[in-house]
Write a structure and sequence with these properties.
The structure is a single chain. The chain is built from nine helices and four strands. It is an alpha+beta fold. The protein has a four-stranded mixed β-sheet, covered by helices on one side.
Length: 208
């Protein structure tokens, strides 16, 4: 991005990072696939690569990656007195659903990155998500929304079903419909975004 802003030739994506649980296998795989040369740091916690005609980047050792955010939020909520009507099992399902939702938005970000090659475009995903949250059923269940246009917007908004799946575990107990819709919408978003990301990656590799 810096090279592009200066009007110089250079790759659209200049640095990317991944996780890896086996640096040796990862290095061998990408050396064969892209001819990337890799080098680990002294502590063995990070391995970098340098693509001759593409971006640079590296891999962080998987066991050093921070614990998932949903667990931190869940811990704070429990300390402040939040009680799950679905019980202990509901807490586990809550964390799993939260991770699936996070994966859905992360996969969408991957597609945007591969499609545009722009860090700014990926960062623009946040205000889009914020808009979808505003016009969702986050603050009020859909059957209690009085404004007809808002009720329609919330019903058509996939984020509503993600939120309702999480919320049902806290205030309702086991609502099979809400959970199926929450997981279904999130998994569908992952599948569609992965297909789009795969197509964008093939196009990008063809150009390079």
């Amino acid at each position: 991005m810096l090279l592009r802003s200066l009007g110089m030739a250079g790759p659209a994506i200049v640095h990317i990072e991944f996780k890896s649980s086996d640096f040796a296998r990862t290095s061998a795989f990408y050396a064969k696939l892209f001819d990337w040369q890799t080098q680990s740091n002294a502590s063995g916690s990070y391995m970098k690569f340098d693509g001759s005609d593409g971006p640079s980047g590296g891999w962080v050792r998987a066991d050093l990656v921070q614990s998932p955010g949903p667990i931190a939020y869940l811990t704070v909520g429990l300390l402040l007195g939040v009680r799950f009507e679905s019980g202990v099992a509901g807490i586990f399902v809550f964390v799993v659903l939260a991770l699936v939702i996070a994966a859905a938005w992360g996969t969408i970000g991957i597609w945007i990155a591969l499609r545009t090659g722009s860090g700014e475009a990926v960062q623009a995903q946040f205000p889009i998500l914020f808009f979808f949250i505003i016009v969702s059923s986050m603050n009020l269940p859909r059957n209690l929304i009085e404004a007809h246009w808002f009720e329609i917007a919330a019903t058509l908004n996939p984020v509503s079903y993600m939120i309702e799946g999480l919320r049902s575990l806290v205030i309702e107990g086991w609502n099979a419909e809400a959970l199926l819709l929450g997981f279904g919408v999130s998994i569908a978003a992952i599948a569609v975004a992965m297909l789009l990301a795969s197509s964008a990656l093939k196009m990008r590799m063809t150009r390079t």
